[in-house]
Amino acid sequence: MTTTPGAPLKRLRVGLVSRVHSLDPRQARDLVSTLAVQQIFETPYAVPRGEGAAPPVLFTGPLVEEGGDRRSASVRPGILFSDGTPLTAAQVASSLNASAALREQARIEAAGDRVIFTLLKPNPRFDLALTLNHSAIVLEKGGRQHGTGAFVPAPGSTLEAVRLVRNPHYRARPALDEVTLTVYPPNQDGRPESLIHAIEAGEVDFTTTLSRGDAGDVKGVRKAFQPSNSTASLYFNTERPELKSAEVRRALAMAIDRVKLTEVSYANALAFAATSILPPMMGVFRDGISPDPDKARALFAQAPAPHPSRLRLLTVWAPRPYVPHPRPVAEAIGRQLAPLGITLDIVSPRNSDEFFRACERGDYDMVLGGWIADTPDPADFLDANLHSEHIQSPNAGRGVGHINLSRFRSGAMDEALRRFREDPTPDNRSGVLQIVAREVPMLPLMYGPTVVVSAWRVRNVDVSPLGVPHFEHFDIDG
After folding, report:
1. Is the Cβ–Cβ distance between 120 and 103 less than 8 Å?
2. Which of 110, 348, 376, 414 could, after both became Cys, cross-link 89 (CB 3.0–4.6 A)?
């Protein structure tokens, strides 16, 4: 890293509430890891800011249809990895073929300066698949992973304290000299008081990890709010004998008042209480599940045995945009299920590793979790949460896109998802959501907006439509 002699170091200090899980883009499944890896690695395309094709990043233009299921694009010339190695079509194809999620969708090969994709199943928005973390282009060399992004990890950087410095071979010169990611652990009840104090003390320049309510309490900073792009849900483990029955799951859902749960995190609860798994940026749907304690008790009593009397609830490891206060919300769920004679044991993992290991083992009865949109395509959001192929397991690997925490296996659902993927009409979308409303593998609870908090000295703040910052565009005064 080089700076102008005598010039002050331009360091952006980013505040987090949990540590980075992985700097391998194919393993980056949480928001914090995504924030980090997208500064280091680039994908062939970027998430579009509106409707239309995804803008090219490492390609020269959009995917060209070559007839049938073939698509291709040329690699942008002049791009270098962080060690100075030129980017080639062969390296792009090799990197993409290392992603199991992409190999399930297409056969990928290089021909000259072009990368050719032969789709294995129809996908009108395959370009969006090339914007995901698992599509990041990685050069494995000398036991290290090199990217083409604006920054690289500095020597001595750790997952607990990530420090990024300029990539000397990046095609443009970022204004920032370095970016530090510092963790400010939340309180026992999940509230990010340490981060709020650090922001107000001038120790943090930027964060996207505060809820709308928590950000409202912070003084002396710039705040921006983007539409809700995530949904918190209560996932029922449908593999458990006590939760196999849709009648039991519906009874549990009817015992829960989503507005009251949302009040734990939002003053204006009605604006954020969920009515569908899809966040508002993807359309409106009402699942028809309303709180009714009397009907819930009657349905629970009449539902097929066995009936659960004690359930183990796994929560996310730290505040997330879709559930800013996981422990208080979990405790409120316990109070609402108590009239059914159910005791709730709340398990709060210490970190993301513990959470994902428990998810892979299916070691829970329910999960208080959620999903943040990876792309603007509702088919991707629904697939991630509901498709049988996306049930987590130790053998499925730890790549992105596996979040079917209900462990819901349904041929009817997989077929409905296929129809919606191939023909994304409102009727086909409704077909998927009606199965969710009927089978109740999960209960959507609340929506989470993207909240951007930055110090006044930070300029050119650039955040994607899905809430990921692009630090190469940022600048700092003074």
Report:
1. no
2. 110
Measure the CA–CA gap between 374 and 387, rounded to whole angstroms.
Answer: 16
Report the distance separating Cα 311 and Cα 364, nearest Å.
8
Q: Is residue 306 reached through a cis peptide bond, with omega within 30 degrees of 0 on the bond before it? A: yes
b/e per residue, 298-319, with b = 16+ CB within 10 A? ebbeebeeeebeebbbbbbbbb
Nearest-angstrom CA–CA distance, 2 and 311: 56
Distance, in Å, from the CA atom of 321 to the CA atom of 363, rounded to the nearest integer, reads 24
User: 391-424: per-residue pLDDT in tens?
Assistant: 988 765 444 556 899 999 999 999 999 999 999 9
Q: How many Å from the N-terminal Cα to the C-terminal Cα in the chain? A: 19
Q: Please report the pLDDT score of residue 235 as a whole number.
A: 98
Instruction: In whole angstroms, give the CA distance from residue 384 to residue 382.
Output: 5
Structure tokens at 209: 């990890």
Spatial separation of the C-alpha atoms in residues 285 and 295, rounded to whole Å: 23
Would you list the DSSP string of 172-200? Answer: S--S-SEEEEEE----TTS--HHHHHHHH
Q: What is the mean pLDDT of residues 200-227?
A: 91
| Distance from chain centroid for Cα 109 | 29
- Give the dihedral of Cα atoms 296, 299, 300, 301; nearest 10 deg: 130
Contact (CB, 8 A) for 115 and 88: no
How large is the greatest C-alpha to C-alpha distance in the chain, in angstroms? 77
Cα Rg of the chain (Å, integer): 23
339 — pLDDT class (breaks 50, 70, 90) = very high
CA distance 394 to 404: 14
The answer to whether the Cα torsion of 219, 323, 136, 142 is positive or negative is positive
Contacts 24+ apart (CB under 8 A), 47-50: 47/128, 47/131, 47/375, 47/376, 47/464, 47/465, 47/466, 47/468, 48/376, 48/465, 49/464, 49/465
> For residue 277, what are the contacts with CB-CB under 8 A and spacing of at least 6?
231, 233, 381, 382, 385, 386, 433, 436, 442, 444
Dihedral angle at the C-alpha atoms of 382, 386, 388, 393, nearest 10 degrees? 110
Residue 235: count other Cβ atoms within 10 Å of its Cβ. 25
- What type of residue is 406? S
Q: Is the dihedral of CA 266, 224, 206, 138 positive or negative?
A: positive
